[in-house]
Specification:
With 735 residues, the chain is mainly beta. Among the domains are: 118 residues, no CATH class; 213 residues, Methylamine Dehydrogenase, Chain H (7 Propeller), CATH 2.130.10; 106 residues, Methylamine Dehydrogenase, Chain H. It has a 4-stranded parallel beta sheet, with no helix packed on it. Strands 5-32-31-30 form a 4-stranded antiparallel beta sheet, with no helix packed on it. The radius of gyration is 29 Å and the shape is globular. It comes from Paramecium tetraurelia. This is EML-like second beta-propeller domain-containing protein. Pfam families: Beta-prop_EML_2 (PF23414), Beta-prop_WDR3_1st (PF25173), Pentapeptide (PF00805), WD40 (PF00400). Keywords: Repeat, WD repeat.
Length: 735
């Protein structure tokens, strides 16, 4: 249930057994509330009052993310009792995690190169690891000490696996599989047959058969006792990355660089089924403990759950920002762990995986945002190749526009709001019917990426700027090219019409801004001053001023009539990606690589607010038509809407915490408390991965416990909430 209930009073409310994922509760009074078994993932509780609350068995998706590795996570594995998760990474380390709390229990150092595979012994006392340093190591799980180092392989050890009885360890590497005595560390056998590296190995549940997958595109089955090859399974057309036996041992699953998953009959060696759905390499496959579900992780950044019997996809789990390299079910089958090249490990609730799959949002950087003329809809273009339309009031996704085959760099509404234009890395411009979501036209002509598109004020002409260094003018009605404006010596990153439609401004990687006469198609002026690429240009609503943002870390304001620089705005220490005037022309919004939006007084050139909240750089900012809201798109894959009516002069980061506490002791109904705590002014966050927001929330004598019994007050505090009971007690001591 995604709801928008800002600034409401919900004292003594009782909610049980439901989901409030993505709910907007900014500034709400939730004093004395009771939440029991509620999913609050992605709720916005900024500046809410949470006094004397009882929130039990709370679920928050983001707690199921384990961060600590400083490079790609290659392998994850649950301990047999399900309490510990091991992970191996390109940072050369192995880490052990407490599954219940998400806390790191130990860091095992010893490998001198990437750790490619980790596997627990059946009794959970030993962990085996394989590495790019060509060695296998055995670790005492209790002490974290290395017990043994097994040498013999001449290349990367891609996979290690204990036999079900724990007596043997198998390893896959340099065209060979080796069997080791797990107790002594001595090599017992070397199995040859593959013509190139062995990427994955897995014992059958009874321990008599070993399966191996290889970069030679084949799967082989081996008799563990004799070391002889029993069968060769052919069918994949590219590298086999992962193999896994079903719990009953009758079926083998395989994942491949040919993007497919295949199921094989172990007895006959025949292919039983082929699952298609992933759009990139399948890096990892594993059966659930009951054998009814198969999970797969892929280079397309997703995890998918499949019904083994029907072959139908049951769920798609999105959240990782890059390749999913390893997946592993917990012993009880309720949780799935995933490791990714985004350096994170995530834990997924298998039962509610379907719900996770339905979360709206871009799966990659948001490059462009634009309000419809009536302010009710927001369009966004992304690195995930899609365009999405959003209901500004609720944050609900209204439509997903697919068609571009590469990154969407720019989106812009026609003046009447009926058509959306988009520019893409696929070199095309597309027109979309906003009402139906259908593509109306595709304009081809640019020979490189289209970085910026904009409609003229009368809606008859579209301008486009491209990495091919040119600007094109198009007839919106016919889709025909009207003109080609040449002059820039590097890619054109931004184009904008002046309000009367007679002049077009363009910003380029050649460090210049140029003015073009639309009627004559001639260059009118060249504005020099920036010392690096010009990323964004925008006319003031009256057409008197032009503002520009650049990779030289500056914002400049120009006289649109004379071309003279009127002001240079200082404050940024990083690249400025986007600039935009408010509808009344008094305020300028800018977005930067420093993850902040800044608001500037156009008349004085002074910065009067800094809006923080995104976790990565800004690519695009824009004002709503009524000037009350700023929308921002970021590399953190999210879109945020900010209410700028509440923006005051910037306060220090600690927000006068003692003042808040002293005011609270006088009256917990004082509305100025919330205003003083107005740190994060985000009113809506649209994101595929829900993040709880509780900046400025006031907490006193509450119980905030998740479904694992972990107290969440520390989490709330790290997110900017004020835990008043400890602060007041400390203050009372001083008196």
């Amino acid at each position: 249930m995604k709801v928008n209930l800002r600034e409401q009073i919900f004292e003594n409310i009782k909610i049980r057994d439901t989901s409030l994922v993505g709910g907007n509760f900014v500034g709400c009074n939730l004093n004395e509330s009771e939440f029991d078994n509620v999913d609050i993932s992605g709720m916005n509780l900024n500046q809410a009052q949470l006094l004397n609350c009882k929130w039990m068995k709370i679920k928050i998706h983001e707690l199921n993310r384990l961060d600590g590795h400083t490079n790609c996570v290659n392998s994850v594995c649950f301990s047999p009792d399900g309490t510990t998760l091991a992970s191996g990474s390109d940072d050369n380390s192995i880490r052990l995690w407490d599954v219940k709390t998400g806390q790191q229990k130990a860091k095992l150092d010893g490998h001198s190169a990437s750790v490619t595979s980790v596997n627990f012994s059946p009794d959970g006392s030993t962990l085996a690891s394989g590495s790019d340093d060509k060695s296998i190591r055995l670790w005492d799980v209790k002490t974290g000490q290395q017990k043994a180092q097994l040498d013999g392989h001449t290349k990367t050890v891609y996979s290690v696996c204990f036999s079900p009885d724990g007596t043997n360890l198998a390893s896959g590497s340099d065209k060979s599989i080796r069997l080791w005595d797990a107790k002594t560390g001595q090599q017992k056998a070397k199995l040859k047959g593959h013509s190139t590296s062995v990427s994955s190995i897995n014992f059958s549940p009874d321990g008599t058969t070993l399966a191996s997958g290889s970069y030679d595109n084949s799967i082989r089955l081996w008799d563990v006792k004799t070391g002889q090859q029993k069968a060769e399974l052919d069918g994949h057309s590219d590298y086999v990355r992962s193999v896994n036996f079903s719990p009953d041992g009758t079926t083998l699953a395989s994942g491949s660089d040919d993007k497919s998953i295949r199921l094989w009959d172990v007895k006959t060696g025949q292919q039983k089924a082929k699952f298609d759905g992933h759009s990139n390499w399948v890096k990892s496959v594993q059966f659930s403990t009951d054998g009814l579900t198969l999970a797969s992780g892929s280079d397309d950044n997703s995890i998918r759950l499949w019904d083994v019997k029907t072959g139908q996809q049951k769920a798609k789990l999105d959240g990782h920002s890059t390749s999913v390299s390893s997946i592993n079910f917990s012993p009880d089958g309720t949780t799935l762990a995933s490791g990714s090249y985004d350096n994170s490990i995530r834990l997924w609730d298998v039962k509610t995986g379907q719900q996770n799959a339905n979360l709206d949002g871009h799966s990659n950087s948001v490059n462009s945002v634009c309000f419809s003329p009536d302010g009710t809809t927001l369009a966004s273009g992304s690195l995930d190749n899609s365009i999405r339309l959003w209901d500004v009031k609720t944050g609900q996704q209204k439509a997903k526009l697919d068609g571009h085959s590469e990154t969407v760099y720019s989106v812009n509404f026609s003046p009447d709001g009926t058509t959306l234009a988009s520019g893409s890395e696929d070199n095309s411009i597309r027109f979309w019917d906003v009402k139906t979501g259908q593509q109306k036209a595709k304009l081809d002509g640019h020979s490189n990426w289209v970085k910026s598109v904009q409609f003229s004020t009368d809606g008859l002409t579209l301008a486009s700027g491209s990495s091919d260094k040119s600007i094109h003018l198009w007839d919106v009605k016919t889709g025909q090219q009207l003109a080609k404006l040449d002059g820039h010596t590097d890619q054109v990153k931004s184009v904008q019409f002046c309000p009367d439609g007679t002049i077009l401004a363009s910003g380029s990687s050649d460090k210049s801004i140029r003015f073009w006469d639309i009627k004559t198609e001639q260059q009118l002026a060249k504005l020099d001053g920036h010392t690096n690429e010009v990323n964004s240009v925008c006319f003031s609503p009256d057409g008197i001023l032009l503002v520009s943002g650049s990779q030289d870390k500056s914002i400049r304001i120009w006289d649109a009539k004379t071309g003279q620089q009127k002001a240079k705005l200082y404050g940024y220490k990083m690249i400025v990606y986007s600039v935009y005037f408010s509808p009344d022309g008094t305020t300028l919004a800018s977005g930067s690589n420093d993850k902040s939006i800044r608001l500037w007084d156009v008349k004085t050139g002074k910065q009067f607010a800094k809006l923080d909240g995104h976790s990565n750089c800004f690519n695009s900012v824009c004002f709503s038509p009524d000037g009350t809201t700023v929308a921002s798109g970021s590399d953190d894959s999210s879109i945020r809407l900010w209410d700028i009516r509440t923006v005051k002069e910037i306060q220090p980061k600690y927000i006068f915490q003692n003042e808040i506490i002293s005011q609270f002791t006088i009256s917990n109904q004082n509305p100025s408390i919330r205003n003083k705590a107005n740190i994060d002014r985000t009113i809506l966050r649209i994101c595929q991965n829900p993040i709880l927001e509780v900046k400025g929330a006031l907490i006193l004598k509450g119980q905030f416990v998740n479904y694992l019994g972990v107290d969440l007050q520390q989490l709330f505090q790290t997110k900017g909430s004020f835990i008043l009971e400890s602060q007041i007690a400390q203050q009372n001591k001083q008196y």
